Automatic annotation (TrEMBL):
It comes from the Eukaryota. This is Trafficking protein particle complex subunit. CDD domains: TRAPPC2_sedlin (cd14825). GO terms for cellular component: cytoplasm.
Amino acid sequence: GGRRTQHCLLRPTKIGGMIYLAIIAKGDVVIYEVKLPGPSSAKNPAENQLQFIVHQALDSLDQKTWSGTNMFLREVDRFNNMPVSAFITAGHIKFMLLHQSGIDENSVKQFFYELYQLYIKVSMNPFYLKNTPITSRKFGDRVFQCARSHFLR
């Protein structure tokens, strides 16, 4: 499926791990993206490929969403032996995670549940406009803390 062509430029990040997180709102708009600390791998995709990989996985996610009721989907797509996992909130916000295949499924699931709690807090903030980029530094710091606790044990 090549129906998704919309993308925005990746912000440069200083972290060296290879876990890429994108939070995607209605209309497939990326409202948050970040490279997170994780086990290093020789087969990391190029920085400019990350968002395209996740957008490609959205097509698979759309198909799998209609065929089940799970919020957590272990693997909706693959790139160079790296799975893309997904979590869909009740409000149809999609959390997409590109990561190494060696990461434990439970760690990914727990990370998504904690991320969901963080997202709920942001979305309840009266100053946050729904479906707009999340720019809160506090949110970013907490996402990094969650990633460290689940992916760098």
